[in-house]
Task: structure prediction
Amino acid sequence: MAGGGGGEESSLDSIEYTPTWIIALVCSVFVFISLAVERLLHTLGKYLKKNNQKPLFEALQKIKEELMLLGFISLLLTVFQNTISKICIRKSWTNHILPCKKEGVESSAHYQVGFISGIGRKLLASSANNDYCTKKGKAPLLSPEALHHLHIFIFVLAVVHVAFCVLTILFGGIKIRTWKHWEDSIAQDKYDTEKALNKVTHVRQHAFIKDHLLICGINDSAILGWLYSFFKQFYGSVTKSDYITLRLGFIMTHCSGNTRFDFHKYMVRALEADFKKVVGISWYLWVFVVIFLLLNVEGWHTYFWIAFVPLILLVAVGAKLQHVISQLAHEVAEKHVAVPGDLVVQPSDKHFWFSRPRIVLLLIHFILFQNAFEIAFFFWIW
Result:
């Protein structure tokens, strides 16, 4: 296909000169992979509905929505690639706020664009679109090559985030299932309500109270209590006495004292319900991505400093959850020396930040996304 005065060179690599069997083969491979993934998601959805796993089914729907959004972004980037690359700006504007130090000399035929890369990768824009702007003494807003790498980054980010969320639900489920034998042992004990009401529990001697107030004490400072919660999250975060006491407190508060209530099954359901809220990439997370790309300026070391954000938040959330348990123990020990029946704590939202437990879930959502973002960014610049 011959080119005219527009500066386009003839190319024998275009689709007009590509063997039909190659086109058919490549098309078949992509269609097969797409259909296989679609059937896999469809089968998984039917399995979840059949087993009454509504929260996980809704999470799967959010994954599908995320993949659809990814496909739409991919389509827009592909369709408007040439249009974006023909948007010309002053060359002086491209010399400021760079992610990498620009090296080499600009050529009238090829305009080099330093794009986001931890190893100083250089991307060379296509000559046709660069000539369009260089003839005007300007530079392209974003070269096709840079746009292609941005395309890849968005794809990798979405895939890594979904994989990260799936691994989280798997590991979380494994952790909760280690508590199953505690629930089974409670059921095997054949809880006697009349006997429990007639007995007297000495608060200070209860294992739950001793575990959480043995070091801190009742009248010690809040700082010491937070320090205890901070270190407690790294070992034995939930003990058997914690599980039994929190279980009974939940049952007495929400289940009208039904001691046969399967608290472990409820915990699994709660994990699945929370999972559907953290699996997607919300709009504010996309805003975070844009802000990071804006602030990833050479010399600012944004990628290094931002790595501390999820670590700090993770430790803060873990310490807060431990502190909530300690506060429940503190409330009972402060009010009572002995109580009739078993020790019962009173679950309350007031122990969470601003009396809103949902804030913890939002922070976990951000932590998961931030970790996925850093891993995706690492693979992208590798």
In short: Residues 1-52 form one domain.
